[in-house]
Model the fold of this input.
Amino acid sequence: MKFITSFKRDMKSFFRFLMIVLGSFVTAMGLNIFLIPFNISAGGVSGIGVILQHLFKIPVWFTVFVLNAVLIVFGFKCLEKNDLINSVISSLLLSLFLGLTENIVSVSEDMILNALFGGAVAGLGIGTVVAFGAATGGTDLLALMVNKKIPHLSVGNIMLFCDFTIIVLSAIVFKNFSLILYCLLTLFVSVKVTDYIIDGMDHSKSVYIISDKHKEISDRILLDIERGVTGICAKGMYSDDEKTMLMCIVRPREVTKIKRIVRDIDSKAFVILSDVSKTFGEGFSDKF
Done:
């Protein structure tokens, strides 16, 4: 039994590491294919890298490596031990993949397409890394450090200020202020995709069912879907009747099964579906 538990834990750690590697690689590809060749910056240390590459011919991967190393050294108190280790690994991997893919050929010369796809691909990579307990370094670590010293400044606002400052600096260096628009487009798409990946991996649905056949419905859900069901005492204020309302949290793909079960048992049942952004506990995420 201990062997099985240990094996499952090891496999979970290996899968987490594999996803951090994949996320770092995807982030590097998004930067090298769509953004760096066209001087488009989404802020962060990679944005500083683009500027330094233009001014001093310093490779972006080297700038990312050095700046992330400095930020991790000064910001290690802001991270838990496991998160720190994962962040160090992710930062090293990002620098490595940026170096290995720096000569990859771009697929389009269109600035808008590069801004959109660069933000989407980089956001996909960053979101994957963050969702599995690491950080790609950069302005997020800097924001944590500043927030610890000045608590009334939120981490999000600090990151936004840092990224916007880097974007404006890029426009000044390249003497192209229309570049700000492309950079802002990239930043917006990147943030949205990152948030979607992080929240989407924990996305669930809450289902509330009011039916006179609540026992039959709950038994079917427990048997067919293997999800826990909670019975909540409820009272109809119009009819003054007391009923049992069922509450169940399921994955989005399981909603169709729930609807089919309810329809088969009681087609007149009252069903409420709503989105749940985070779910902790057995059958879902075990990390608060």
